Amino acid sequence: MKKPLSLYIHIPFCVRKCAYCDFLSFPADAREREQYLDALICEIRTFAPSVADRTVVSVFLGGGTPSLLTETQLKRLMDAVYAGFSLQSDAEITIEANPGTLTAHKLFCLAKMGINRLSLGLQSARNEELRLLGRIHTYEEFLDTYRLAGEAGFENINVDLMSALPGQTFAAWQETLERVAALSPAHISAYSLMIEEGTPFFETYHEEDEKRRRGEATALLPDEDTERKMYRWTDQFLREQGYVHYEISNFAKPGMECVHNIGYWIRREYAGFGLGAASLLEECRFTNTTDRNAYRKQGRSAQKVQKLTEEDRMEELMFLGLRMMSGVEKKRFLAKTGVPVHKPYGDVISLLRSQGLLEEDEDYLRLTARGIDLGNYCMAQFLL
Q: With 70 as the cut, is the pLDDT of residue 105 above it?
């Protein structure tokens, strides 16, 4: 039986950078996009024979905004994927898209190419919040895109949302989530805003964010108690709407959990293509260059390589696995490392259990609700 493999393909282009975004993305003209696509397809074709012994279970076109590519460009890209790799018959193939960048024709073309999952970056159902974030669309444009996607045959649609925005009240977050849940998408990703260095938001809100994290009052960002209230209400509300809370920030209708992202959390092997893309193969991490000119000239040969140690693998199994609501499976940890989880982590497990942050049954270790609130502290304890 062939080993499973996931593919990540990075499309770094966007109309403009959002105020909170620290991803590797940037505006580019038509010529640069075409040159990048040529380099990307060359990288895929060159690398594919080295994993001929694996079956691809998921493909994820992320960015940036992959939906900015033309129909012809996307077809060239997908043709290279199909020609180079052995895809499982029901492989999950996702494309990220911003509302307003998809037409009815493009959506029908995507479906015809075999893309079967759409991830729409809505972030908020309130236009004033979208303007604050620097998004290029309105809520009404999202609704039009969502309707067109359904008409094109897309049943597996994820909607990305963001809470704890500057000036956002608990009631405003409720409104956004209620509006989106009423559409009944297959999947909802609900993340709290992170103020990242190098973004416009960092310049504006960094000091306020530090105050929030110290538990001090702030007029600009929701305080820590409100942020936790948002998170807990999200969990309760979406469960009532029939969603499974399967990862800290992700909710799905039963059977519609994201195959690709679960692969990251359980450390399934994956190959990344494009600018800055990372791979995990044979317990090595490979990371492509983030230099645009170097990538176009050298492709995959401009990589950084890190051979993971036994400690690295154990740490990743714990702090990635604990993102899953089911937790870290003990049998899987043993199979992947050759040692039971209590051998390297017995003292840490005892400590976190005594603090009410971790719970354990015969098969799994998982964070409690309070453990999720203090997730950064919990994860740090598993660094060897």
A: yes
